[in-house]
Specification:
It is a single chain. The chain has one domain: Immunoglobulin-like. It has one helix and ten strands; from the N terminus they run αββββββββββ. The chain has one helix spanning 3-25; strands at 29-41, 46-48, 61-72, 79-87, 90-92, 95-97, 100-108, 116-124, 128-139, 142-152. The strands form three sheets. The chain has a four-stranded antiparallel beta sheet with strand order 2-1-3-8, with no helix packed on it. The longest helix has 23 residues, at 3-25.
Length: 156
C-alpha cells in the first residue's frame, strides 16, 4: 500500500469524525420549563398574581400564561409552542357553566443566548373550578410537553 493510500484513509476518517461531531454540536436541546398563571387586570392595565387582582367575578380580568422555554436551538424551521386551556362543564350555586377550550400557537425562531425565554399567552378568564393547561413544543429535533392543573376562581 502506498503512502498516499494510507494518507487518504486517514483524511477520510478525519473528515467523517469532524462531520459527526459538527452534526451533534448543531443539534437542539430545548425543553419546556414551568407554566405560570398570572392575571391581566383590565382596570389597572397591569399583570399581577391572580390573588392580587380585586375582581371577585373575573369580569375585568384575562388569564396570562407564561410558558418557560429553555435550552439551545439551531434549526432552519421555527419551533411551535401550542397552549391548550380547557375546563369541563360544571354546576355550582351560581348556576351552570359551559365547557370551554382555547388553543393558541406561537412560533419561536430562536432562543436568547441566556437559553431561557418566557412566552406569554393571553386567554379569556372564565370562572371554572378545574382548568387544565397543556403546553406542547415541537420543531426540528424537539418535542416536549408540560401540564398544569389550576382553577379560575370567582365569587359565587
Amino acid at each position: 500500500m502506498s503512502s498516499w493510500t494510507k494518507l487518504r484513509g486517514w483524511l477520510l476518517g478525519g473528515v467523517l469524525l469532524l462531520s459527526t461531531a459538527a452534526a451533534s454540536a448543531g443539534k437542539s436541546s430545548v425543553a419546556l420549563g414551568e407554566i405560570e398563571l398570572r392575571a391581566f387586570d383590565r382596570v389597572e392595565g397591569a399583570i399581577a398574581k391572580l390573588e392580587e387582582v380585586e375582581d371577585p367575578f373575573g369580569m375585568f380580568v384575562d388569564a396570562v400564561f407564561l410558558v418557560q422555554v429553555k435550552g439551545n436551538f439551531e434549526g432552519n424551521k421555527p419551533m411551535k409552542l401550542t397552549v391548550v386551556v380547557s375546563a369541563p362543564k360544571e354546576e355550582s350555586e351560581a348556576g351552570a357553566r359551559r365547557a370551554w377550550k382555547v388553543t393558541q400557537t406561537r412560533e419561536l425562531h430562536a432562543l436568547p443566548q441566556s437559553g431561557v425565554i418566557q412566552v406569554p399567552f393571553l386567554m379569556p378568564y372564565e370562572c371554572a373550578s378545574s382548568v387544565k393547561v397543556v403546553a406542547t413544543l415541537t420543531g426540528p429535533g424537539v418535542k416536549d410537553s408540560k401540564k398544569l392543573d389550576t382553577a379560575f376562581p370567582c365569587a359565587e
